[in-house]
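Dear U.,

Please find below the material for section 3 of the report. The protein was modelled together with adenosine-5'-triphosphate; I have listed the sequence and SMILES used, followed by the predicted complex structure.
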Amino acid sequence: MAKLKGSPPAGSTQPDRREISPGDVLKAEGLSYRYPTGLQAVGNFTTGIKPGEIVSIVGPSGCGKSTLLRILAGLREPTGGVLERREPEAGRHTCSMVFQEDTLLPWLKVAENVRLFYRFQGERASKRRDRIMELLSMVGLEKFADSYPSQLSGGMRRRVAVLTAVAPLPSLLLLDEPFSALDEPSRIAVHQDVYQLIRTFNITAVLVTHDLGEAVSLSDRILLLSSSPSTIVKEFHTPFGAERDLLEVRSDPRFLEMYGDIWNDFRRQSTKAGV
Ligand SMILES: Nc1ncnc2c1ncn2[C@@H]1O[C@H](COP(=O)(O)OP(=O)(O)OP(=O)(O)O)[C@@H](O)[C@H]1O
């Protein structure tokens, strides 16, 4: 396990303990983060994430979701608590991240963007063509392999952005509001493709989102955070199982029921946060 350790969070009480199991891909115990400005963004975050689990993080605007995701990615060191990430199996990459912003390189063709990780590894361009074409066909984009990102729609570009992160076969995929710029029909269509990729390659995923419907339809578990400094105030386990059709899920009465439950708690937290 790779360990990132910070000093105990200043002024915190005991970690808000959630169940952590020995086989978890990721274990966070009492994580906290204070910016050099003095702002305590993350308070006392404790959870374990099981292999293959999809977990969404929701919470009031500005509560520290992106900060937390960057800590889970190893891009920021926590100032308190302990984070452990399990070493990936042979042939798998530790962790990939998809950002909200468009990160495709405009001067590279679609297939070259998807192959970028291997290019950085020094591989010849011809080496993974079949694999890259297989990935593109999984999201219906095989005909666009030789197009440039500017020739694609927003939804297509988001699919390619996710493929660039999935191509190295990450054990852990972190998604920071990756679909928020899309209109609702495009967003739901992209959800289905991304969901299939995650399940097919048995990837463990953590998604930060403002869209409660997205969280309910895509996740196994949803963590609702308090306002900053954020801690988990409630967890929700979705009842849909791994073999779900995301369009059908949206007309399942349990979807609306869970959406309503989360919304009530979410609104309470947002009111407390003054947003
Ligand atoms: N580099 C930084 N330096 C100082 N404070 C920061 C920095 N980045 C973010 N913050 C502050 O930390 C808090 C948490 O920010 P963060 O972006 O993690 O929240 P968020 O929940 O992802 O926000 P949103 O819902 O708006 O996307 C906010 O008050 C923000 O202003």
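For the text of the report, you could mention the following: Residues 253-273 form the longest helix (21 residues).

Regards,
Y.
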